[in-house]
Write a structure and sequence with these properties.
Helices cover 28% and strands 15% of the residues. By secondary structure, it is α+β, with helices and mostly antiparallel strands. The chain has one domain. Strands 1-2 form a two-stranded antiparallel sheet. It is elongated. This is DUF2184 domain-containing protein.
Amino acid sequence: MLTYKILDVKSDVASGAETYACNVMTRAVVAKILGNSSDDIPLVDTDMRREFQRIYSIVTGFTYTVKEQRQAKLTGTSVNAYKAGLARRAVSEKENRLTWIGDSDYAIQGLANAEGIQTENVEPATEGNRHRMGE
């Protein structure tokens, strides 16, 4: 899924760990064009705080009947392969959703709704402002 293609996934957390802690840096950053006689240069600043996150397991499973197992043996196929692929897909989709939108039931923030994400309201395009909107 997309998560592992664009993000560097932290993989050195001990397999038996129940929580993970990291430092989160928030920033205040503003820049401006400096006029000839200006002396009001905006400054940047950062604030660091320690965050803790519980570690959860993402699970799914599948079953098959004795009849399905016998049919697979008869045809030389694996009943597990297709269902295991579906299970892997379900876990990957859940990871992807957690990455982007989080899960409020478990206090997990996603990239799209994390605290401190800077957003800016943009006026809708109208006939009067199309030149400013790049059209």
